[in-house]
Amino acid sequence: PVDTERFGPVSDELVEDYFLMVSRLVPYKRFDLAIDAFKTLGLPLKIAGTGRDRQALERRAGPTVQFLGHVSDDELARLYARARAVVFMSEDDFGIAQVEAQAAGRPVIALGAGGALDTVIDGVTGVHVAEQTTESLIEAVRRFEGLSFSTRRNVEHAQQFSMQRFADELVRIVEETREAKTWS
Q1: Phi, psi at 2, each rounded to 5°
Q2: What is the pTM of this model?
Q3: How far apart are CA 113 and CA 105, in angstroms?
Protein backbone atom coordinates (compact mmCIF):
# COMPACT_ATOMS: atom_id res chain seq x y z
CA PRO A 1 0.00 0.00 0.00
CA VAL A 2 0.97 3.62 -0.60
CA ASP A 3 0.22 6.49 1.77
CA THR A 4 -1.64 8.42 -0.93
CA GLU A 5 -3.23 10.72 1.67
CA ARG A 6 0.16 12.47 2.12
CA PHE A 7 -0.14 13.90 -1.38
CA GLY A 8 -2.66 16.12 -3.05
CA PRO A 9 -3.03 18.10 -6.25
CA VAL A 10 -2.78 21.83 -6.78
CA SER A 11 -4.75 23.94 -9.23
CA ASP A 12 -3.43 23.94 -12.78
CA GLU A 13 -2.28 27.55 -12.37
CA LEU A 14 0.21 26.43 -9.69
CA VAL A 15 1.88 23.74 -11.82
CA GLU A 16 5.36 24.93 -12.69
CA ASP A 17 7.55 24.39 -15.73
CA TYR A 18 9.79 21.52 -14.59
CA PHE A 19 10.02 17.77 -14.71
CA LEU A 20 10.98 15.87 -11.56
CA MET A 21 12.95 12.76 -10.67
CA VAL A 22 12.92 11.39 -7.12
CA SER A 23 15.13 8.56 -5.91
CA ARG A 24 18.47 7.52 -4.56
CA LEU A 25 21.23 8.57 -6.94
CA VAL A 26 22.49 5.11 -7.83
CA PRO A 27 23.39 3.65 -11.23
CA TYR A 28 20.39 1.39 -11.84
CA LYS A 29 17.96 4.33 -11.49
CA ARG A 30 19.43 5.66 -14.79
CA PHE A 31 19.55 9.35 -13.98
CA ASP A 32 22.29 9.55 -16.61
CA LEU A 33 19.77 8.84 -19.38
CA ALA A 34 17.33 11.44 -18.07
CA ILE A 35 20.04 14.08 -17.68
CA ASP A 36 21.19 13.52 -21.26
CA ALA A 37 17.60 13.62 -22.55
CA PHE A 38 16.68 16.82 -20.74
CA LYS A 39 19.96 18.48 -21.78
CA THR A 40 19.14 17.63 -25.39
CA LEU A 41 15.55 18.83 -25.06
CA GLY A 42 16.57 21.97 -23.16
CA LEU A 43 13.82 21.32 -20.61
CA PRO A 44 14.12 21.87 -16.84
CA LEU A 45 14.67 18.76 -14.71
CA LYS A 46 14.77 18.81 -10.90
CA ILE A 47 16.36 15.85 -9.12
CA ALA A 48 15.47 15.15 -5.48
CA GLY A 49 17.60 12.59 -3.67
CA THR A 50 21.08 11.74 -2.52
CA GLY A 51 23.47 8.95 -3.31
CA ARG A 52 26.90 7.87 -4.40
CA ASP A 53 26.44 9.00 -8.02
CA ARG A 54 25.64 12.64 -7.25
CA GLN A 55 29.05 14.11 -8.13
CA ALA A 56 29.30 12.24 -11.42
CA LEU A 57 25.74 13.18 -12.33
CA GLU A 58 26.34 16.84 -11.48
CA ARG A 59 29.37 16.86 -13.78
CA ARG A 60 27.21 15.37 -16.55
CA ALA A 61 24.32 17.82 -16.05
CA GLY A 62 23.77 20.97 -18.02
CA PRO A 63 22.18 24.26 -17.00
CA THR A 64 18.61 22.93 -17.15
CA VAL A 65 19.25 20.26 -14.48
CA GLN A 66 18.97 21.16 -10.80
CA PHE A 67 20.01 18.89 -7.91
CA LEU A 68 17.94 19.40 -4.76
CA GLY A 69 19.54 16.81 -2.50
CA HIS A 70 17.48 15.46 0.36
CA VAL A 71 14.04 17.08 0.64
CA SER A 72 11.55 16.94 3.51
CA ASP A 73 8.26 15.06 3.18
CA ASP A 74 6.39 18.37 2.88
CA GLU A 75 8.77 19.64 0.18
CA LEU A 76 8.46 16.33 -1.71
CA ALA A 77 4.67 16.64 -1.73
CA ARG A 78 4.98 20.21 -3.04
CA LEU A 79 7.49 19.18 -5.72
CA TYR A 80 5.26 16.35 -6.93
CA ALA A 81 2.16 18.53 -7.06
CA ARG A 82 3.81 21.34 -9.03
CA ALA A 83 5.81 19.30 -11.56
CA ARG A 84 4.71 19.02 -15.18
CA ALA A 85 5.47 15.30 -14.88
CA VAL A 86 7.55 12.93 -12.79
CA VAL A 87 10.14 10.81 -14.60
CA PHE A 88 11.32 7.25 -13.81
CA MET A 89 13.87 5.44 -15.95
CA SER A 90 14.48 2.31 -13.87
CA GLU A 91 12.61 -0.97 -13.83
CA ASP A 92 11.11 -1.36 -10.39
CA ASP A 93 8.98 -4.18 -8.99
CA PHE A 94 6.21 -1.77 -8.01
CA GLY A 95 7.14 1.92 -7.98
CA ILE A 96 5.74 3.63 -4.89
CA ALA A 97 6.97 7.03 -6.09
CA GLN A 98 5.02 6.62 -9.33
CA VAL A 99 1.82 6.22 -7.33
CA GLU A 100 2.75 9.12 -5.04
CA ALA A 101 3.16 11.40 -8.07
CA GLN A 102 -0.25 10.40 -9.40
CA ALA A 103 -1.79 10.92 -5.93
CA ALA A 104 -0.48 14.48 -6.25
CA GLY A 105 -2.36 14.67 -9.55
CA ARG A 106 0.66 14.60 -11.81
CA PRO A 107 1.31 12.40 -14.83
CA VAL A 108 4.26 10.03 -14.89
CA ILE A 109 6.78 9.34 -17.63
CA ALA A 110 8.15 5.88 -16.78
CA LEU A 111 10.05 3.04 -18.36
CA GLY A 112 7.32 0.72 -19.64
CA ALA A 113 8.47 -2.31 -17.66
CA GLY A 114 8.01 -3.88 -14.26
CA GLY A 115 5.65 -2.13 -11.88
CA ALA A 116 5.06 0.82 -14.19
CA LEU A 117 2.96 -1.46 -16.37
CA ASP A 118 0.56 -1.76 -13.41
CA THR A 119 0.81 1.73 -11.92
CA VAL A 120 0.94 3.97 -15.02
CA ILE A 121 -1.73 3.79 -17.72
CA ASP A 122 -0.03 4.80 -20.96
CA GLY A 123 -1.73 7.83 -22.49
CA VAL A 124 -4.10 8.19 -19.51
CA THR A 125 -2.09 8.73 -16.31
CA GLY A 126 1.26 9.13 -18.01
CA VAL A 127 3.49 7.86 -20.78
CA HIS A 128 5.54 4.67 -21.01
CA VAL A 129 9.11 4.93 -22.26
CA ALA A 130 9.66 2.12 -24.78
CA GLU A 131 13.33 1.39 -24.02
CA GLN A 132 15.86 2.33 -21.38
CA THR A 133 17.69 4.78 -23.66
CA THR A 134 18.08 8.54 -23.92
CA GLU A 135 16.49 8.53 -27.36
CA SER A 136 13.45 6.62 -26.16
CA LEU A 137 12.98 9.03 -23.25
CA ILE A 138 13.21 11.99 -25.63
CA GLU A 139 10.49 10.39 -27.78
CA ALA A 140 8.32 9.80 -24.70
CA VAL A 141 8.69 13.41 -23.50
CA ARG A 142 7.77 14.70 -26.95
CA ARG A 143 4.73 12.39 -26.94
CA PHE A 144 3.84 13.57 -23.44
CA GLU A 145 3.88 17.19 -24.58
CA GLY A 146 1.23 16.41 -27.20
CA LEU A 147 -1.18 14.85 -24.70
CA SER A 148 -3.34 16.21 -21.91
CA PHE A 149 -3.88 14.53 -18.56
CA SER A 150 -6.63 14.79 -15.98
CA THR A 151 -5.50 15.64 -12.47
CA ARG A 152 -8.69 14.06 -11.12
CA ARG A 153 -8.11 10.85 -13.12
CA ASN A 154 -4.53 10.59 -11.83
CA VAL A 155 -5.65 11.00 -8.21
CA GLU A 156 -8.45 8.45 -8.67
CA HIS A 157 -6.06 5.96 -10.26
CA ALA A 158 -3.59 6.31 -7.38
CA GLN A 159 -6.32 5.52 -4.85
CA GLN A 160 -6.47 1.90 -5.95
CA PHE A 161 -3.04 1.53 -4.30
CA SER A 162 -3.99 3.42 -1.11
CA MET A 163 -3.49 2.19 2.43
CA GLN A 164 -7.25 2.38 3.00
CA ARG A 165 -8.04 0.15 0.03
CA PHE A 166 -5.33 -2.28 1.13
CA ALA A 167 -6.85 -2.46 4.65
CA ASP A 168 -10.39 -2.84 3.28
CA GLU A 169 -9.35 -5.63 0.91
CA LEU A 170 -7.41 -7.43 3.65
CA VAL A 171 -10.46 -7.37 5.95
CA ARG A 172 -12.67 -8.60 3.08
CA ILE A 173 -10.35 -11.51 2.34
CA VAL A 174 -10.14 -12.51 6.00
CA GLU A 175 -13.94 -12.36 6.34
CA GLU A 176 -14.48 -14.42 3.16
CA THR A 177 -11.94 -16.97 4.33
CA ARG A 178 -13.50 -17.13 7.79
CA GLU A 179 -16.99 -17.59 6.32
CA ALA A 180 -15.80 -20.30 3.91
CA LYS A 181 -14.03 -22.26 6.66
CA THR A 182 -16.05 -24.86 8.49
CA TRP A 183 -14.86 -24.80 12.06
CA SER A 184 -15.20 -27.93 14.14
Answers
A1: -120, 140
A2: 0.93
A3: 22
Q: How far apart are the first and last CA of the chain?
A: 35
155: left (phi over 0), alpha (psi -120 to 50) or beta: alpha
Instruction: Give which of 70, 60, 112 is closest to 89, Cα–Cα.
Output: 112
> Which pLDDT belongs to residue 167?
85
Whole-angstrom Cα distance, residue 91 to residue 70?
22
SS3 assignment, position 174: helix
Give the count of alpha carbons within 13 A of 124, CB side only: 13
Element (H, E) at 66: strand 65-69
Of the candidates 89, 85, 130, 140, the one whose C-alpha atom is nearest the C-alpha of residue 107 is 85
- Asked whether the beta carbons of 61 and 81 are under 8 A apart, the reply is no
DSSP 58: H
Closest CA to 21 of 34, 8, 33, 7: 34
pLDDT digits (tens, 9 = 90+) for 87-125: 999 999 999 999 999 999 999 999 999 999 999 999 999
Vertex 44 angle, CA 41 and 47, to 5°: 120
d(CA 153, CA 102): 9
